[in-house]
Amino acid sequence: MDMHTVVVGPAGTTADDVIAVARDGARVVVSDEALAAVAAARQVIDDLAAKPDPVYGVSTGFGALAVRHISPDLRTQLQRNIVRSHAAGMGPRVEREVVRALMFLRLKTLASGHTGVRPLVVETMAAILNAGITPVVHEYGSLGCSGDLAPLSHCALTLMGEGDAEGPDGVVRPAAQLLAEHRIEPVELREKEGLALLNGTDGMLGMLVMACADLARLITSADVTAALSLEALLGSEKVLAPELHAIRPHPGQAASAGNMLRVLTGSGLTGHHQDDAPRVQDAYSIRCAPQVAGAGRDTLAHARLVADRELAAAVDNPVVLPDGRVESNGNFHGAPVAYVLDFLAIAAADLASIAERRTDRLLDKNRSHGLPAFLAGDAGVDSGLMIAQYTQAALVSEMKRLAVPASVDSIPSSAMQEDHVSMGWSAARKLRTAIDALGKVVAVELVAATRAIELREGLVPGPAARAVIEAVRAAGVEGPGGDRFLAPDLAAAEAFVRAGKLVEAAEPLTGPLA
After folding, report:
1. Does the annotation mark 339 as catalytic?
2. Interstrand relation of 138-140 and 172-174 (parallel, antiparallel or unpaired)
3. Which of these is catalytic: 56, 140, 284, 390?
4. What is the mean pLDDT of residues 260-273?
5. Does domain 207-510 have CATH number 1.20.200.10?
6. Looking at the domain 5-200, which fold is it?
């Protein structure tokens, strides 16, 4: 595991910290300041627990069962039972990085001093993360309100030494066995602690943070492939002029246009070889590429703003306030996160849609301005990239379905006590699928655009295009020629795009791309 260390304090955390812990295995350390704040909040809970007055989550049942007062001798059982009963997820296992993000973000809130857990709970959760132990969490079970209840419950179960978890070796075993191997004592939960472990938006937030990072890389990659397609189609770079974008001052649009213009610098293909079929204007998929990608960039900026606010939050119910009051609230409702998760799925689908239209244009001999049909070696004998575009179209169609918002749905639960829910977990899950598909769509455009540029014999592409072509060929994506088993080329191109190699190949010639 990476020995980079992330310090958790009462002030919250950053998106980079989440990614470092979730994906890179960064070590987690809870600051002394945070532990002091946790201890102070716990004293408030202990004082309330000693009084006869009912306090939600401390001396009452949960949800629709909150009307029952729980006597002191049953409270440990109460906290243990909420974890066991709520660990009711079903379906495939959720990815390791998602579970680690979820646990880290719950730890962040526990360390805020607003939840009332003991320092022992915080320290044990950090120890589990640092040991590389990952609870088994299932796809279905969260409605995105009252927090990601089932996913967080499966994590809390591991804290108690129950259920199954994946060890650092990738093998799933009983959690009790894994904790014992790492000399971690299971926690016996006390008042408020079971509830505090479950009541957060941590799963959907963790997925939002990682989606923002992935989508940012793919938007820049799509700017590069759009520029390559423009170059391959002998399009005009004049539409990318900064003064045109300054009079419609969306910052994302200007950034994407700037990226494309830098990629096209020095090209011998753009705008100068249209004598056979003069064009006053290029098609929308070429000419409006910055407007579409730019709108995605601005959507992403808004999503990151929401994520940063949520990262600064302490989401629990009830919460311990600085003046010692313990108050019920609705901050666990996932609407703010769910909305932007859905919004990003829309932006991703449209970015994929316009990329697919550019690919189709490259393959159509009636619209590609002199390129062979389907970029084939011997069209008719060879089919070229015909079916690669089919695959791309299938992915785009799926992404359009995934763009249907989850957050507009609500199914009441808990005997109508929880009568409006966010479905934010579902929005996050489908966004992850959409972003995975977008990487594949961009990869297909890359394969088509680089092949098309190489087929422009006698014309010299720009330095950035030449660098990209050289890098993508070195990565195992072959150039023009006769038909061959195409799936490995597409897989290599996808890996190239997903790892950020496309942007890395261009930047030595373009300078840093936005």
Report:
1. no
2. unpaired
3. 56
4. 90
5. yes
6. Fumarase C; Chain B, domain 1 (1.10.275)
